[in-house]
């Protein structure tokens, strides 16, 4: 029915279409695994299911909550409504302090406890991460 050239073009275009679909699928799949969402302590309290995915929790470091030991630091992140306890092993940023903005990235163990793998602190007195500022204004 179709000539040899037409069949070859159909096969060629089908292969290009299939390869394009596979490429888009793999790109989206890899991005899905690397996306980390920001949550406030109030958002954490409203989570129905806790997973082992990375999560970022942001807010203010509660005054009097920082406890330093030889190998780890414990502190509380608050949005002035709810709180999340954080434990972190490693060097903290120089700008990390009580009553300052912070974002902790790690694994949520339950609605009250985060095991942080990374701590992000603000740059100067007036700077606050936009997500933290927005979440604090909403709450």
**Subunit organisation of the chains:** single chain
Amino- and carboxy-terminal Cα gap: 68 Å
Strand and helix order:
HEHEEEEEEH
Q: What spatial form do the alpha-carbon principal axes imply? A: elongated
CATH topology value of the largest domain: OB fold (Dihydrolipoamide Acetyltransferase, E2P)
The spatial strand order of the largest sheet comes to: 2-4-5-7-6
CATH architecture title of the largest domain: Beta Barrel
Strand runs, count: 7
The proportion of strand residues reads 25-35%
Largest sheet: 5 strands, mixed, barrel
Number of domains: 2
Low-pLDDT parts are none
Name the CATH homologous superfamily of the largest domain. Answer: Nucleic acid-binding proteins
Provide the residue-averaged pLDDT.
86
- The CATH class of the largest domain turns out to be Mainly Beta
Helical stretch tally: 3
Give me the Rg, rounded.
23 Å
Range of helix content: 25-40%
Structural class: alpha+beta
Walkthrough of the structure:
The protein has two domains: 1-35; 38-138, OB fold (Dihydrolipoamide Acetyltransferase, E2P). The chain is α+β, with helices and mostly antiparallel strands. The chain is 32% helix and 31% strand. Strands 2-4-5-7-6 form a five-stranded mixed barrel. The chain is elongated.
Quick overview:
The chain is of the alpha+beta class.
List the helices and strands and how they pair.
Layout: H1 4-34, E1 38-39, H2 41-45, E2 54-61, E3 67-68, E4 73-78, E5 83-88, E6 101-110, E7 113-121, H3 130-138
Parallel strand pairs: 1-2, 5-7
Antiparallel strand pairs: 2-4, 2-6, 3-4, 4-5, 6-7
């Amino acid at each position: 029915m179709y000539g040899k050239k037409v069949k070859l073009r159909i096969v060629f275009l089908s292969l290009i279409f299939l390869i394009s679909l596979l490429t888009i699928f793999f790109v989206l799949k890899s991005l899905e695994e690397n996306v980390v969402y920001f949550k406030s302590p109030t958002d954490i309290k409203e989570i129905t299911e806790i997973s082992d995915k990375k999560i970022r929790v942001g807010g203010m470091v509660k005054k009097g909550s920082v406890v330093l030991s030889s190998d780890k630091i414990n502190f509380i992140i608050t949005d002035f409504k709810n709180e999340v306890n954080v434990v972190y092993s490693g060097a903290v940023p120089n700008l990390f302090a009580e009553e300052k903005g912070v974002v902790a990235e790690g694994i949520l163990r339950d609605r009250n406890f985060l095991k942080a793998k990374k701590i992000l602190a603000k740059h100067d007195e007036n700077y606050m991460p936009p997500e933290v500022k927005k979440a604090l204004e909403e709450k």
